[in-house]
Amino acid sequence: MTELTNQLSNESSPYLQLHAEQSVAWQSWSEQTLSLARLLKKPILLSIGYSACHWCHVMARESFADDEIAGLMNGHFLNIKVDREERPDLDEVYQTAHQMLTGQPGGWPLTIFLCPETQLPFLAGTYFPKQAQGGSLGFEDLLKRVAGYYQDQQPDFVRLRTQVADGFSHLMQSAEQPSESKPQTLLPLALSSLQASQDNVDGGFGAAPKFPLPVNVSILLRAEANNQLTVAQAEHLHLTLTTMAERGINDRIGGGFFRYSTDNHWRIPHFEKMLYDNGQLLDVYARAWILSDDPLHKSAALGVVRWLRRHMLSADGVFFSSMNAETNGREGDYYCHGLTEIKDCLSADEFTLLEWMFALDGAPNFGERWHFSQRVDLASAARKLMLTRETALRLYRSAREKIETLRAQKPLPLIDDKILTGWNALVIKGLFFLARKDDELRELSLAQGAIDFIRDRLFVGQRLFAGWQNEQPTRHAYLDDYVYLMDALLEGLQTHWRDVDYEFLMALAETLLRTHEDPRSGGFYYTAHDAETLVYRSKPLMDTAVASANGVAAKVLWRLGNLAAEPRYMTAAQRLIDFAMPAMRQSPETHLTLIQAQHEIHSPLPQVLMLDSNDRMASWQRDIRQTFPEAVMCYRLPATSKSPPPEMLALEPGEVLVCTGDRCLEPQATHIAIIDQLTGVVSAMAFELGA
Question: Whole-prediction pTM value?
Answer without folding.
Answer: 0.95
